Amino acid sequence: MCDQVPGAKAKRRKLNGMTTAKGKTKREKTSITLSHPTLDPNPAHLRYYDGACDPEIAAECMEHIRNVPPSDWLDVGRKPRQLEKQQLLYGRERSDRRVQSPDIPVCFQALYRQAVLRIQQDRPDLFERIPKEAAVSCAVNQYVVKDPMKGSGKGLGMHCDSGAWEPLVIGVTLGDWRYLKFRHKQTKAWYRICTQPCSAYLFCDEFYTDWQHCSLPRSSKQDGTIYSISYRFK
Ligand SMILES: O=C(O)CCC(=O)C(=O)O
Fold first, then answer.
1. Which domains, ranges and CATH numbers included, belong to the chain?
2. How much is the pLDDT for 164?
3. Would you tell me the crossing angle of helices 55-66 and 106-122 to the nearest 10 degrees?
4. pTM score, two decimals?
5. What is d(CA 233, CA 1) in angstroms, rounded to the nearest whole number?
6. Which strand (E) or helix (H) includes residue 60?
7. Which atom of ligand 1 sits closest to the CA of residue 214?
8. What percent of the chain has pLDDT over 70?
9. Which of 213, 216, 225, 232 to mutate to test the pocket of ligand 1 (most atoms within 8 A of CB)?
């Protein structure tokens, strides 16, 4: 997986469990794109689940997030008060970061449990590794509309997550679709996943240590802020 030749013509493949009942693949937006045809189209440690979460719980989570006063969002970039460089962090503190609250909101944990159930159906082995009731920490990112005329949005730059956590992340997308991209640190081979609202993803092990990830800015019309909630463990 890690010694693929990057840069060859991108090739679309079906993503884990993305085939419709009629055996056709869904619209292009729901597919995975690979940087090279020899990449595994169904990697064991990068999973995507369309429709994993109940839209009502997702709406409750978005309502919760929107009710957090702007002053409570934490700056994660170098410049203060940049909307796209702010996060809400809940749960266990890391040594270098404050959290908004040590308690993860009840609706975020309900969303988490739904994602976990979906993972159980797909990968009982990964399910075994995940706390069933509650995550230890979670981060909320907001991807705001950058240009209302063009409808283009903001993203989150390529990065690796901290070694302070278990090498396993579960994330849920809320509000609208966006692309999540994973790029191998050495070969630069990549996967791009279109994560739909109420979908969940999981990445672990080599996708945590050897690959970076980012949320791409939307270049096509984005009607409102997109949110992601990503859950971490210790
Ligand atoms: O938007 C996402 O799902 C990714 C979040 C992320 O990479 C992070 O919080 O470090």
1. 11-17+30-232 (2.60.120.590)
2. 87
3. 140
4. 0.86
5. 25
6. helix 55-66
7. 7
8. 85
9. 213
